[in-house]
């Protein structure tokens, strides 16, 4: 049985991305298709890597972080090192998001106070005008 292969347009359509995006990931060394003349032929591993890159992007991972996780792929070991590293990165991202949410709430509170001060001052100025 021959392994499944994909064209660049098939992957672009499947993942709803542009072929330019796929070529960018290739230029970054994250995908390594075979060539038949000018045609790129992507392996199932390339497809899995692309899926991991896009999932990492949605989770806020940098390309360097995705590259690091992909490089750890080792099915013989059950991918324990890769999974532990992914779990650590998820914890880091969650902690950073929680801090950002806190910072946003503080800023919203400060904006509310500034808005109220402005409204009070505006009301006072309008009362004096009358």
From TrEMBL:
Q: Entry's SUPFAM superfamilies? A: Putative DNA-binding domain (SSF46955)
Keywords associated with the record: Coiled coil, DNA-binding
| PROSITE patterns named among the record's database cross-references | HTH_MERR_2 (PS50937)
Pfam families on file: MerR_1 (PF13411)
Q: Which Gene3D superfamilies match?
A: 1.10.1660.10
* SMART domains (UniProt xref): HTH_MERR (SM00422)
Query: Record's superkingdom?
Result: Bacteria
Residues annotated as domain HTH merR-type: 5-72
InterPro entries from the UniProt entry: DNA-bd_dom_put_sf, MerR-type_HTH_dom, MerR_fam
Q: Which residues does UniProt call coiled coil?
A: 80-124
Give GO terms: molecular function aspect only.
DNA binding; DNA-binding transcription factor activity
| Cross-referenced PANTHER family | HTH-TYPE TRANSCRIPTIONAL REGULATOR YFMP (PTHR30204:SF58), REDOX-CYCLING DRUG-SENSING TRANSCRIPTIONAL ACTIVATOR SOXR (PTHR30204)
**Protein name in the entry:** Transcriptional regulator
* Source organism: Oleiphilus messinensis
* Organism phylogeny: Bacteria, Pseudomonadati, Pseudomonadota, Gammaproteobacteria, Oceanospirillales
């Amino acid at each position: 049985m021959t392994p499944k292969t994909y064209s660049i347009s098939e992957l672009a359509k499947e993942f709803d991305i542009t072929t330019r995006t796929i070529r960018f990931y290739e230029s970054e060394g994250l995908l390594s298709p075979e060539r038949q003349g000018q045609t790129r032929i992507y392996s199932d591993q390339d497809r899995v890597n692309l899926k991991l890159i896009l999932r990492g992007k949605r989770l806020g991972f940098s390309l360097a972080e995705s590259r690091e996780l992909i490089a750890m792929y080792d099915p013989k070991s059950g991918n324990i090192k890769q999974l532990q590293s992914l779990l650590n990165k998820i914890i880091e991202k969650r902690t950073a998001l929680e801090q950002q949410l806190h910072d946003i709430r503080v800023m919203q509170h400060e904006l509310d106070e500034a808005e109220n001060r402005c409204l009070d001052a505006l009301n006072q100025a309008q009362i004096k005008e009358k």
